[in-house]
Specification:
Layout: H1 11-15, E1 22-25, H2 29-34, E2 42-45, E3 48-49, E4 52-53, H3 54-59, E5 70-75, H4 84-87, E6 92-96, H5 100-113, E7 121-124, H6 130-147, E8 151-156, E9 161-164, H7 192-208, E10 212-219, E11 224-235, E12 239-249, H8 251-287, H9 294-320, E13 327-330, H10 331-345, E14 350-355, E15 360-363, H11 367-380, E16 388-396, E17 399-405, H12 413-419, H13 435-445, E18 449-454, E19 459-466
Helix pairs in contact: 8-9, 9-13, 10-11, 11-13
Length: 472
């Protein structure tokens, strides 16, 4: 992004110690080129010119007389000049600040280029003086810290926050931006159990100058992950001042990685089991041609189970690819629709629905998959020939709740712990299927929660989703 070209050469900069110089200012490149005639003895330009650059000014030649020399004036606040300044044949290159010394150097350079002329005239074009450049940098810094939706911060040499981004976002690690100012991480900005390591990282960066790039940090109290980078803050006059940093939330990414590990584990385990059944029964039939038909039925059941697993994998891919929008959803209508569909699919099952009118939740279009999996699990895992399931939809304590009560064997505790993140996926040895995973993923993506409890004769699974209003 180029800074706004509103700087001009002040005539006093060129008249300084050279009162005989006559100065005229051209505001644009085209204006300077149009006025480059026999009355012009020297051109003074900054590198960036409204409508082009000083290189273009230098390259535009005339045919009726020699081109006037061009003196390039460049802002020198950071000690650097454009590479073109030394690779192009400018008559002179003068680093400029807002000091009197720079003004004298610029006027002296012009005099050196045309020393035999008593009363030269100079056409100047806009260029960034140091003061204007500093104002531009300050404006840019302010906009960067107020407009970019990231948690960015500047800390002093003791690790105290002196600047914190003010963008209106929910990605703050723990607090509002103004609650950070003047405080270190160990001063209550971060919970005590989690503050020591980031604070020690601050001090290490400040003392050693070794940056930290893309460090994954987990804050257990809030259950959030951040990718953090820090570098030492220095200036030319005072040396080390502190550090600069940015923390980008990656909680969704880490949760997606965890869920992918769960799915991979479950699919591998379930597919292996089903294939072992198929291969074992097939070998039995080969060795026993006259065997009872139960072996063939077992193969068929296993094959149908594999087809079901593949269907669920397709559902999972649909859910995990992309970021479906969270919007108001009539949860009662969704549950009614799924109950009707499953009642037709499982005519022997009894599904009793208690649905409160007007329960609107903030959910995604995938919420129907979560309801289907809960109800279907309750039917397919029932130990009774006529499964019975109770499902209710209502507002409880200001939240939308869907509760499914079955008559199935207890869901293994360790599987619940894996689904809720209390146990690693490596500890999972088997599963009731992918249905609960689908439910968990869909609900948590909508900032909801799933809880698992025991009922009188089975399990009670409760889905809690934030309420919403139509059009909100």
């Amino acid at each position: 992004m180029q800074p706004k070209q509103d700087w001009t050469i002040h005539p006093d900069q060129l008249r300084h110690q050279r009162p005989a110089l006559s100065v005229e200012v051209a505001e644009t490149l085209s204006e300077a080129l149009a006025r480059r005639d026999e009355s012009i003895d020297c051109l003074v330009a900054g590198f960036e010119i409204s409508g082009g650059t000083a290189v273009e000014l230098l390259d535009q030649s005339t045919t009726d007389r020699p081109d006037p020399p061009v003196v390039l004036a460049v802002a020198a606040s950071d000690g650097t000049v454009p590479v073109e300044a030394v690779s192009e044949p400018f008559a002179d290159v003068v680093p400029v600040t807002d000091s009197d010394e720079s003004a004298a150097e610029l006027a002296g350079a012009v005099a050196a280029v045309i020393p035999e002329t008593n009363d030269p005239e100079i056409a100047g074009v806009p260029f960034p003086d140091a003061r204007s450049m500093n104002d531009w940098k300050a404006t840019l810094f302010d906009q960067f810290f107020t407009g970019i939706p990231q948690h960015m911060f500047v800390k002093d040499e003791c690790g105290r926050h002196v600047v914190v981004s003010e963008s209106a976002i929910s990605h703050r690690i723990h607090r509002r931006s103004d609650e950070y100012l003047g405080r270190r991480d160990i001063d209550g900005v971060v919970p005590d159990a989690e503050a020591r390591e980031p604070y020690e990282d601050d001090i290490s960066v400040i003392e050693t100058g070794e940056p930290i790039h893309n460090k994954e940090e987990y804050y257990a109290e809030s259950g959030r992950w951040f990718l953090t980078s820090k570098d030492r803050w220095e200036d030319e006059t005072r040396g080390t001042r502190g550090l600069l940093g940015v923390a980008q939330e990656i909680t969704d990414r880490k949760e997606r990685e965890r869920q992918l590990r769960i799915v991979t584990h479950l699919v591998r385990h379930n597919l292996r089991n089903q294939l072992n059944v198929i291969s074992g029964r097939a070998e039995y039939l080969i060795d026993n041609p006259g065997a009872a038909p139960e072996a063939g039925q077992c193969i068929l059941d296993a094959a149908l189970g594999l087809i079901e697993q593949l269907d669920k994998q397709q559902t999972i891919l649909k859910i995990m690819v992309g970021e479906p929008e969270v919007r108001p959803v009539d949860l009662g209508e969704v549950v009614r629709s799924e109950v009707e569909a499953l009642s037709r699919q499982y005519p022997a099952a009894s599904i009793e629905a208690d649905i409160e009118d007007g329960v609107v939740g903030s959910a995604t279009d995938n919420v129907n998959h979560a309801i289907t999996e809960l109800l279907e699990n309750a039917i397919s895992h029932s130990s009774r020939s006529t499964p019975h399931v109770d499902v209710s939809v209502r507002i409880v304590d200001g939240e939308a709740r869907i509760r499914v009560v079955d008559e199935c064997p207890a869901i293994p505790e360790f599987e619940v712990e894996v689904l809720t993140g209390q146990r690693t996926v490596d500890q999972l040895s088997h599963s009731t299927g992918l249905g609960l995973w689908i439910t968990q993923w869909v609900v948590t993506h909508a900032d909801g929660a799933v809880s698992f409890d025991r009922a009188t004769d089975g399990n009670a699974v409760t889905v809690t989703i934030p309420t919403a209003e139509w059009g909100g």
